[in-house]
Design a protein that fits this description.
Elements (H helix, E strand, L loop, with lengths): L3 H20 L5 E7 L5 H14 L3 E7 L2 H13 L6 E4 L3 H6 L12 H4 L13 E2 L2 E2 L2 E2 L10 E5 H6 L11 H15 L4 E3 L9 H10 L9 E2 L4 E2 L4 H15 L12 H9 L3 E6 L3 H7 L7 E4 L12 E3 L6 E4 L6 H10 L3 H9 L12 H4 L3 H13 E3 L3 H4 L7 H4 L7 H9 L5 H22 L28
Parallel strand pairs: 1-2, 1-3, 8-11, 13-15
Antiparallel strand pairs: 3-14, 4-5, 6-14, 7-11, 7-12, 9-10
Helix pairs in contact: 18-19
Length: 474
C-alpha cells in the first residue's frame, strides 16, 4: 500500500508531466497574409485576434506593404521561395495563375460556400481559370469603387451656394467652381485636383471620364476590337479640365498636388469639390476629420447628356488568393474562409472599407456612414456591366489589358503634362493609341488569338453586357 509521501510524489510527477506536455505541445502553424491596405491596419489586428481565437493552432501574421512597393515585393517573394500563404491582388486571376502564384481552391469548395456568391464570380475567366477556382473576391464589384464626386457643404455655403445642391452637369461644375474660387479670395478654391505623380490625375478625372464611357482608363472599343485613345471624347475631357484650370478653379500648385494634399485641402475647407473612390469616408475619419460636413453625388454629366458609364466586371475588384507556395493549405483555407464569415463581413462593412460580395448580405444594414449609404443608392445609375472576353473564349486574355498603365506616357500623364502647358494632348493620345495597337497585335500573334476574339458586335456603351449577350456577340 502506498504511503502518503509516495502518493504526493506521484501526484507531483503527474503535474510536472502535464506541464511539460503543455510546454512541449506542437507549435502553432504560422499563416502569413500580405496586403497593401494601410487604412485597414486596426481592422486586420482585430480579425487576427478573432481568427486565432477560433483556431488556437494557427498563428496569423498580417504584413502590410505600401501599395507602391507591393507589386515589386510580391514577385520577389515568390522568386525567393518566401511568398506569403495568402495574398491580396488587383490583377486578374488569369495573370496570377499564369505567373504560377495562385493555388487552386477546388478541394475546399463546398456547394454551400460557392452558393454564397453571385454566380458570375465563378464563370470561366473570372475567379475560375482553366476550369479551377483560384480566387475569391474581396468586395462587391457591382458598386463602383473609384468614381465619386465629393462636395464640401461648408465651402459651398460660404460662397453663397446651396450646400445641398451639388453640380449635375459639366457646365454647372465649371460655373460653381469659378464662383467659389472668386468668393474664396485665396482662402478656398473650387476643385482640389491631383497632379503628382502625373498618373494620379486619374483619381480626380476618372469620375468625369466615366460619363463619356472612358471610365476604365484603358479604353478599348469592343464593337470594333480597337484601342480607343484617339476617340474625340478624350479631347473633350481634356478641354473641359483645361477650361476649369484656366478659370483659376484648381487649387494652386496642381503639378505638386498629391492625393494626400488634395484630400487634406478638401477636409480643411480649402476646396469645395474633390473626386475619388468609395474609400474616402473611412479615409477622412482616419485622417482626423470625423465631423467633416460634406456630401457625395454622382459625377456631373456632359451638358448634352450622359454618353457612357463606369463599366464593371467581377475581376475589377481586388481578390484574395492562396499562395502556390503555402506549405499549409488546410490551415490557410481556414483563415481564407473566415474572411467570408458573417463576423468578418459585418466588421468590414461597418468599418466603411467597402461592401460585401456575398449575395444575401445586407450591406445597407451594416453601412453606418451616411455617404456610403448614398453610394449604395446611386450605384445602379452610374455603372454598367462590362465585357469579359474570356467568358466567350477562355484563352482570350492578353497582358496588355492589365498592363496598359505601364505603357508610358499613359493617357493621364499626357493629360497632366498638357494641363501644365507641356505637350500636345491630342497628338500624344494618337501616338499612345498606335503604341498600344502595336503591342496588342504583337500579343495576339504570340498567343495565337484572332482580333475577332475581342470584337463584340452587340456591345452598347449605354447598356449592361449580360451573360445572354455573349451568345449573339459575333
Amino acid at each position: 500500500m502506498l504511503n502518503r509521501k509516495t502518493i504526493a510524489l506521484l501526484f507531483t510527477c503527474i503535474l510536472v508531466l502535464a506541464m511539460l506536455s503543455t510546454t512541449l505541445a506542437a507549435p502553432k502553424t504560422k499563416i502569413v497574409i500580405w496586403t497593401w491596405s494601410q487604412e485597414q491596419a486596426k481592422f486586420f489586428e482585430e480579425m487576427e485576434a478573432k481568427i486565432e481565437a477560433k483556431y488556437p493552432d494557427i498563428d496569423v501574421q498580417y504584413t502590410k506593404i505600401v501599395q507602391a512597393q507591393y507589386r515589386n515585393s510580391l514577385p520577389l517573394a515568390f522568386r525567393g521561395d518566401n511568398a506569403p500563404d495568402i495574398f491580396f491582388e488587383s490583377n486578374t486571376p488569369s495573370d496570377l495563375v499564369g505567373l504560377g502564384f495562385a493555388r487552386p481552391l477546388d478541394e475546399f469548395m463546398t456547394k454551400s460556400f460557392v452558393n454564397q456568391f453571385p454566380e458570375e464570380y465563378f464563370y470561366e475567366g473570372v475567379c475560375k481559370v482553366n476550369g479551377k477556382i483560384h480566387a475569391l473576391p474581396q468586395s462587391n464589384y457591382k458598386i463602383a469603387r473609384p468614381i465619386y464626386f465629393y462636395y464640401n457643404k461648408d465651402v459651398m455655403k460660404k460662397a453663397g451656394l446651396n450646400p445641398n445642391k451639388p453640380p449635375k452637369t459639366w457646365s454647372e461644375l465649371r460655373e460653381m467652381a469659378k464662383k467659389i474660387t472668386i468668393a474664396g479670395k485665396g482662402e478656398y478654391y473650387g476643385l482640389a485636383m491631383t497632379g503628382k505623380p502625373a498618373h494620379d490625375l486619374e483619381r480626380t478625372a476618372l469620375p468625369l471620364a466615366s460619363t463619356l464611357g472612358l471610365s476604365t482608363g484603358n479604353t478599348f472599343d469592343w464593337k470594333t476590337g480597337k484601342w480607343d485613345y484617339d476617340n474625340p471624347r478624350w479631347v473633350q475631357l481634356f478641354e473641359f479640365l483645361k477650361s476649369m484650370k484656366d478659370d483659376g478653379s484648381f487649387f494652386p500648385g496642381f503639378a505638386s498636388m498629391d492625393k494626400t494634399l488634395a484630400r487634406t485641402y478638401f477636409a480643411q475647407n480649402k476646396a469645395a469639390f474633390f473626386m475619388d473612390g468609395l474609400w474616402m469616408p473611412a479615409t477622412f475619419v482616419s485622417m482626423g476629420y470625423p465631423n467633416l460636413n460634406y456630401g457625395v453625388a454622382p459625377p456631373p454629366v456632359p451638358d448634352n447628356g450622359r454618353e457612357g458609364y463606369c463599366y464593371l466586371i467581377p475581376t475589377a475588384v481586388p481578390m484574395w488568393y492562396m499562395s502556390s507556395q503555402t506549405k499549409y493549405p488546410k490551415e490557410a483555407w481556414k483563415v481564407l474562409s473566415f474572411f467570408y464569415s458573417d463576423e468578418y463581413q459585418r466588421k468590414f462593412v461597418e468599418n466603411n472599407f467597402g461592401y460585401s460580395p456575398l449575395k444575401n448580405f445586407k450591406n445597407e444594414k451594416y453601412t453606418k456612414d451616411p455617404q456610403l449609404k448614398e453610394i449604395i443608392k446611386m450605384a445602379p445609375d452610374i455603372s454598367r456591366l462590362g465585357v469579359i472576353p474570356t467568358i466567350r473564349n477562355p484563352k482570350a486574355s492578353l497582358p496588355i489589358f492589365n498592363t496598359v498603365n505601364t505603357v508610358h506616357p499613359t493617357i493621364w500623364e499626357l493629360m497632366t503634362s498638357a494641363l501644365m502647358g507641356e505637350g500636345d494632348f491630342k497628338k500624344g493620345a494618337v501616338e499612345l493609341n498606335k503604341k498600344l495597337t502595336d503591342i496588342f497585335e504583337s500579343q495576339l500573334k504570340e498567343a495565337n488569338l484572332s482580333k475577332n476574339d475581342f470584337i463584340f458586335k452587340n456591345w452598347d456603351s449605354m447598356k449592361d453586357y449580360n451573360i445572354e449577350m455573349y451568345k449573339t456577340s459575333k
